[in-house]
Design brief:
The radius of gyration is 19 Å and the shape is globular. The longest helix is centred in the first third of the chain and has 14 residues, at about 20-30. The protein has helices spanning about 20-30, 55-65, 75-80, 85-95, 110-115, 145, 180-190, 200-210, and strands at about 5-10, 35-40, 70-75, 105-110, 130-135, 155, 170-175. It has a seven-stranded parallel sheet with strand order 3-2-1-4-5-7-6, with helices on both faces. Mean pLDDT is about 90; it is low at about 215-225 and about 235-238. The N and C termini lie far apart (about 55 Å). It is an alpha/beta fold and about 240 residues long. α2 runs antiparallel to α8. It has a single domain (about 5-175), classed as Rossmann fold. The chain binds adenosine-5'-triphosphate and magnesium ion.
């Protein structure tokens, strides 16, 4: 008998991708026996609050971060669409490519899932994929039962064996993940502090080599150096 497909989808701005994202992906992969994980940086259109690194750099870092995970893929499908990224659209693309909701597991931190009611196509989106909600430091996944009581009937704790004919589940995965955020990383780079252990070594190297998130070229004072075009977004632009 062929093994069922179980596809993880890990989305985010990934500005930059860090060890907390990778821990969340690994926790879902292990807990749910995922056969593939797609890591999908989101597009931020010009009229929205801008990312700090360009879409090109965010994708490059994502590709480097998945390099050590043979079953993971960096996917550019949201970046190729010009407009804002909506998970609803992304899930439809997966459905159109032959992946039914029963095979999809959208991996998300418990902090982000708290806002699910504000997402496009809520509550229908709950029928379009399983959600694999992973704890983030300060945001235990188990607490969602009490914080989102209207959804508690759909929530389940591992081990779960979702059946094809069931409504998709909200699976609460209480595993530790690194206490790090992209915001902290950007702030540390601005102060020229090291990122050891917060991002994959290749990602750290890429950030340093291209001067991402630092107001100056490393080692020089701000007033000495113009913004580096290689760093993507020029500081001061929006
Ligand atoms: P920022 O500080 O810019 O908001 P972030 O670190 O929160 O960045 P996002 O790109 O906003 O990262 O998050 C993408 C997804 O990864 C979200 O579902 C978020 O909940 C999850 N996530 C981010 N950091 C962690 C972490 N340390 N542990 C578990 N999940 C995380
Ligand atoms: Mg965030």
């Amino acid at each position: 008998m062929t093994q069922p497909r179980r596809i993880g989808i890990l989305g985010g701005t990934f500005d930059p991708i860090h060890c907390g994202h990778l821990d969340a992906g690994r926790a879902a992969e292990r807990t749910l026996n995922l056969t593939r994980v797609y890591v999908i940086p989101s597009n931020v259109p010009p009229h929205r609050r801008q990312t700090f690194a360009s879409a090109f750099h965010r994708f490059a870092m994502t590709a480097m971060a998945v390099a050590d995970h043979p079953n993971w893929r960096a996917a550019d499908l949201e970046l190729r669409n010009g407009g804002p990224s909506y998970t609803a659209h992304t899930l439809k693309e997966f459905h159109d490519r032959g992946y039914p909701p029963s095979e999809l597991f959208f991996i998300i931190g418990a902090d982000a899932f708290m806002d699910i009611a504000t997402w496009r196509d809520y509550p229908k989106i709950l029928d379009w994929t399983h959600f694999a909600v992973v704890s983030r430091p300060g945001h235990p996944a188990g607490a969602l039962r009490y914080r989102l009581p209207a959804l508690s009937t759909r929530m389940a704790h591992p081990p779960v064996e979702p059946m094809q004919e069931m409504d998709p589940l909200i699976i609460l995965i209480d595993e530790p993940t690194a206490d790090v955020s992209s915001t902290t990383i950007r702030e540390r780079r601005e102060q020229n502090l090291p990122l050891a252990g917060m991002v994959a070594p290749r990602v750290e190297q890429h950030i340093t080599q291209h001067g991402l998130y630092s107001p100056n070229i490393p080692g020089r004072r701000r007033s000495d150096s113009p913004p580096d075009p290689a760093a993507g977004r020029l500081h001061g632009q929006s």
